[in-house]
Amino acid sequence: MEREILDLETLRRQFPVTDELAYLNHAAIAPLSRQAAERMSAAAAAVAATGDRGWPERNEEVERVRGLAARLLGAGAPHEVAFTGNSSEALSAVAFGLDWRDGDNVVGPEPEFPSNLHPWSGVAEVSGRRVEYRRVPERDGRVDAGDLVAAMDEGTRVLAVSWVQYASGHRVDLEALARACHERGALLVVDAIQGVGALALDVQRSGIDVCALASHKWLFGPEGVGLLYVSDRVIERIRSTRRGWRWVANHFAWSEVDPTPAPGALRFEAGTLNVYGIHALGGSLDLLLGLGAEAVERRVLALAGRVARGLAERGFALAAPRTPGEVSGIVAGAHPEHSAEELTEALAGRSVVVSARAGRLRVSPHVYNSDEEIERLFAELDALL
Question: How far apart are CA 93 and CA 10, in angstroms?
């Protein structure tokens, strides 16, 4: 096991869920950190007591959290990060904001989570253009970067891919995809919801043009808060299709009519934001950044590796190979005699929380999980198998 990045007992006090459950389901919905819940409650209590009197201070916190998100992603500046309602909304803003032409195509993997599928499959309908969505099957549980690149041609405008596949845990080589996209003038659009918070990401070093995610999985944040990173180098290629008071650069000049868009990705924020959720996200980002992204990744991968070995020893066929650089916090496997749904339900009755996806048992531990919780998973599985 990797060296502890923090006194585990101290860290676990940030997660009340540990009082009752062995919670190993962060790829679905993560528990809020105690700090996140407290910050959300404090913001709500302030509005209840004072109405809009604290509005400037609440918006100052929004901008502070934007800066934290930019730092976590490795963005060049905070204005490259917009708040959205979720990752689906963020990806749709990009898909329907491009100036599509007849004969264009989008390349992506198969299978793919619906958030990163429906926006691209809907481009032709929404744009009225003949745009093809090319889906490249996975091989041996892997989304092969070479296969995706081979499907690209001179008409490829976007390569849209999940960094980590939700049903297998396979992590794709983003830097290889970025090189191929930039050589061809295509955009690399990444759904990073199953990676950021568990794995270290630098969008600039990786060459990502657009990155979308939401806070309710590996970021320990609330549902209803998403993030959209758009690099300054590509921002003028994507129109903002929604307009409102926050869309313009001088969005506090309400009596003026100046259609100059807000700088960078801020133009994708049409109106009033989910301030309570953003305050909560700030609490969890403070926690994660305090731990350090690389240290969190080491701990998560060590726990996931232990889960993978334990499932394999119990007869599970793992969904993806455990190749260094391609693993994530998600471990998924199918048992030859017991359905994933049956096992998930039985484990829940024993206060061990995992999930079932694509016919596989999916286990997704995070940094605060203990070795004892992993052993508890194995002990309960031994009783069920």
Answer: 40
State which amino acid sits at residue 131.
V
What is the pLDDT averaged over residues 155-168? 98
Q: What is the predicted pLDDT for the residue at 2?
A: 42
Which amino acid is present at 304?
Answer: A
Same-domain status, 279 and 149: yes
Q: Round to whole Å and give the CA distance between 254 and 270.
A: 14
pLDDT tens for 294-331 read 999 999 999 999 999 999 999 999 999 999 999 999 99
Distance (Å, whole) CA 302 – CA 321:
15
Output the pLDDT for position 1: 38
- Does residue 191 sit in the same domain as residue 270? yes
SS3 content of the chain, % helix, strand, coil (to 5): 40, 15, 40
List C-alpha distances in Å: 355 to 135, 219, 347. 26, 18, 9
Token pair listed for 99:
């100036």
CB–CB of 161/177 below 8 Å? yes
